[in-house]
Every structure is written in C-alpha cells, then in structure tokens.
UniProtKB/TrEMBL annotation:
Keywords from the named record: 4Fe-4S, Iron, Iron-sulfur, Isoprene biosynthesis, Metal-binding, Oxidoreductase
Function: Catalyzes the conversion of 1-hydroxy-2-methyl-2-(E)-butenyl 4-diphosphate (HMBPP) into a mixture of isopentenyl diphosphate (IPP) and dimethylallyl diphosphate (DMAPP). Acts in the terminal step of the DOXP/MEP pathway for isoprenoid precursor biosynthesis.
Binding positions for dimethylallyl diphosphate per the UniProt entry: H59, H92, H142, S240, S241, N242, S285
Protein name, entry field: 4-hydroxy-3-methylbut-2-enyl diphosphate reductase
Residues annotated to bind [4Fe-4S] cluster: C30, C114, C212
Organism field: Isoptericola luteus
Coiled-coil regions, chain positions: none
UniProt gene name: ispH
C-alpha cells in the first residue's frame, strides 16, 4: 500500500471573495436640508431669478452650483443684496443682528433655517433670559455656531473640543448649561460634556438632544459597516461638518482607511488597491445622484455587488418656510411638496 505525499509547492486555487460595496442607510439629505434646497427652488420658480441666498444654502458644492445655474446668487452678507430684493437665509440659521440688517435694507426674506437649529436658538434665548452661562459646544466660525451665539453673545462661550475645557471660565458654577451645534460627532460631544461635568459638577443638560437626528443616524450606520470595510468613502464637501465627522467616525469604528470626496471623479485608484469591501455613505447635505455616481465608479473597478446596511428609517419632513408658503398660496400654487427620493435607483441588496 502506498501513500501520496502532497506536494508542498502546489496550492489549491480558490476564487477570491467578490468585491462588494456596503452602502450605509440612512445617508444623504436630511429633512432640514431638503426643506432649504426646495425653498430656493420654489422661490426661483415663483418669483423668478435672481433670488439671493446668504452663505451657502447647505454645505455642498454640487447643490450650490446647481442652484447658481438656475439663478440663485450667493452672498456673504446682507449689504451685498440690493435694497428691496429677496433673500433666503440658509439652513444653518442667522443671528438677530443679521435679521436686523436685512430689515434695514427692506429685504424680502425667506427663512430656511432648519427647525432643529431654530430649537437650539430658542434654548440659548431661554437660558440667557435666566442669566445662565451657556457653553456652546461647536466649531468657531461655523455659520450655525455664529447664529446661535448671536442670540445671546454676552452669555455664550464656544467650546470647540474636549481640550478646550481647561480654558472655560464661568461666573457661577452652579448656573451653567451646555448646548451644541447640531452636526457634531456624538462621541466627541459627549466626551466634551464629560470633561465639562468633571470641572463643573452642576452643569445642566439642554432640555432635549441638540445633535440632529440625521447626524446621529448617519454616524450609527457608519459605525455598523466600518469594521467590515477596507475603505470607507464619504461623499460630502469639505465645509460640511457632518460629512467630515463621518470620516472620523469610520476610522474610529474600525475601517482601515476612509476618505471624503465631493464627487466620484476624486476617488483615487490607489485607495482601492487590495480592497475587497468598500463602504459608502454621504453627509446630510448630499443629493443621492452623487452617491449613485460613486457606486457606478466602484462598479467599473470590479465592485459589482452593492449591499445596503440599514440601521434606521427616516420619514420626518418639515413644511416649507412660512414666508414662502404665503407667497405660493398668493400665486395660486400648492404650498405642499413631495419628499425627495433619498434611495439609490441602482440595484441594491439589503443586508
């Protein structure tokens, strides 16, 4: 009886695992962004061009460029707008000083501030009225932070990160409260709160969570898929706080690498070398067409299977700004609008 000794130089040939895309859900447009973008579109349809917009209506290059092509004129400040013209306030909100400047120029304003941002503004006003020191966790210079701080400039101080806590000084440690920018990293915000509470044990919480539901949902979805990904690609602009945070969250959750792109053409071939699983998501100001372009790009590089990783379903929708609803009604138009389609039209397999 003879036995055959396996040749150590031979190997079994096996097919490598198929390349795949894990597509985060929820992703893309949130209700506040949807409302703001539609507000500008409806204003252009109803009143005609030009319609002026203070700052970017939302932080996304594609959206801004598309609206500019349709006749929107984006300005930095109200003094750039002709007297008596129509001006839209962006989704990020504005301070009372900006509203007063607009009124002084007799501008016909449409307030597209996200209702969740407005909620934070009202919290600042309420706590300032009760003479609290208000610790606003957020990024200095961001439009939302400028608008919120402007509601109570004598009571608000901005805390940019956990490392800023040591520099915080308050009048009365027994009378302080924290509020936050709506688009922050949940984990980093809570770490900042933890350090603040160590320093100020009587620190009060806001009456409700300030970080936007959509920001939280997108971060949760990325945390779910990141550990299985060699690469996570986040579609979103560089000035989009929530998009930038998604890159950080992906890396912290276990993705080998993560990159942010405005559009598919920015994806570098080197990022995909050796990768078998690529995660894809998008910030809350990103239209789905940009995600579809990324999926097509990945398909051309062999990532032909797309599996959706869903952690929540969003059905919230905000009504259009009241000033615009009044204008639509006066012109005989329907002030209601269908919700935008936020799901990709490409073949996707649920996980």
């Amino acid at each position: 009886m003879t036995s055959t000794v396996p040749d150590p130089t031979s190997t079994l040939t096996t097919e490598p695992p198929a390349k795949r895309v894990l597509l985060a859900a929820p992703r893309g447009y949130c209700a506040g962004v949807d409302r703001a973008v539609v507000a500008v579109e409806k204003a252009l349809e109803t009143y005609g061009a030009p319609v002026y917009v203070r700052k970017e209506i939302v932080h996304n290059k594609h959206v801004v460029e598309t609206l500019r092509d349709r006749g929107a004129i984006f300005v930095e400040e109200t003094d750039e707008v002709p007297t008596g013209a129509r001006l839209v306030f962006s989704a990020h909100g504005v301070s009372p000083a900006v509203r007063e400047a607009a009124a002084a120029r007799s501008l016909d304003t449409i307030d597209a501030t996200c209702p969740l941002v407005t909620k934070v503004h009202k919290e600042a006003v309420r706590f300032a009225k009760d003479d609290y020191d208000i610790l606003l966790i957020g990024h200095t210079g961001h439009e939302e932070v400028e608008g919120t701080a402007g509601e109570a400039p004598d009571h608000v101080q901005v805390v940019n990160s956990p490392d800023d806590v040591d520099d915080v000084v308050v009048r009365d440690p027994a009378k302080i409260v924290w509020i936050s920018q709506t688009t922050l990293s949940v984990d980093e915000t809570m770490e900042t709160v933890r350090r603040l509470r160590e320093k100020f044990p009587e620190l009060q919480d806001p009456p409700s969570d300030d970080i936007c539901y959509a920001t939280q949902n997108r971060q949760v979805a990325v945390k779910k898929l990141a550990p299985d990904c060699d690469v996570v690609i986040v579609v979103g602009s560089a000035n989009s706080s929530n998009s930038v945070r998604l890159v950080e969250v992906a890396l912290q959750a276990g993705a080998r690498t993560s990159y942010r792109v405005d559009r598919a053409t920015e994806i570098e071939d080197a990022w995909l070398e050796g990768a078998r699983t690529v995660g894809v998501t998008s910030g809350a100001s990103v239209p789905e067409i940009l995600v579809e372009d990324v999926i097509r790009h990945l398909d051309r590089h062999g990532f032909g299977t797309v599996e959706e990783v869903r952690t929540a379903t969003e059905d919230l929708m905000f009504s259009l700004p009241r000033e615009l609803r009044a204008g639509l009604k006066a012109s005989g138009q329907d002030a209601k609008r269908p919700r935008r389609e936020s799901r990709t039209q490409l073949p996707v397999q649920p996980v």
